[in-house]
User: Which sequence fits this backbone?
């Protein structure tokens, strides 16, 4: 797509009086792609979402960038895992923690876990999902 913008008359691009092309896309997401094409390395600033750059790479058909960006998106998604903990997970945590310690299960997804007959005193379940 990007090469076609400059080679084809089928994709008319706006050109200013100096001969510069107008690329009507988000400059924040296009800049890493342009730099990648210049020197072959993908460098993202901290404030740039890899998902946005991925969508631009797909739009412009930069296939060599897609796997790298998909890997970045997947690694960024890791901490957001909301897979429910099982009874086995909870028992393992309880048995490996001193009875004098206070556990924090804040924002933990425990949906569907049968926690009956477990000693759950001194555990902070604030914002946790405890539905069956």
Assistant:
């Amino acid at each position: 797509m990007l090469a076609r913008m400059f080679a084809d008359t089928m994709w008319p691009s706006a050109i200013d009086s100096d001969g510069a092309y107008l690329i009507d896309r988000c400059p924040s997401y296009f800049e890493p792609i342009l730099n990648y094409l210049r020197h072959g390395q993908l460098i993202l600033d901290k404030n740039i979402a890899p998902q946005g750059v991925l969508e631009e790479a797909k739009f412009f058909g930069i296939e060599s960038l897609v796997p790298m960006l998909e890997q970045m998106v997947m690694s960024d998604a890791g901490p957001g895992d909301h897979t429910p903990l099982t009874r086995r997970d909870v028992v393992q945590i309880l048995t490996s923690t001193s009875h004098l310690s206070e556990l924090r299960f804040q924002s933990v997804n425990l949906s569907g876990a049968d926690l009956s007959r477990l000693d759950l005193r001194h555990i902070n379940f604030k914002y946790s999902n405890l539905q069956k």
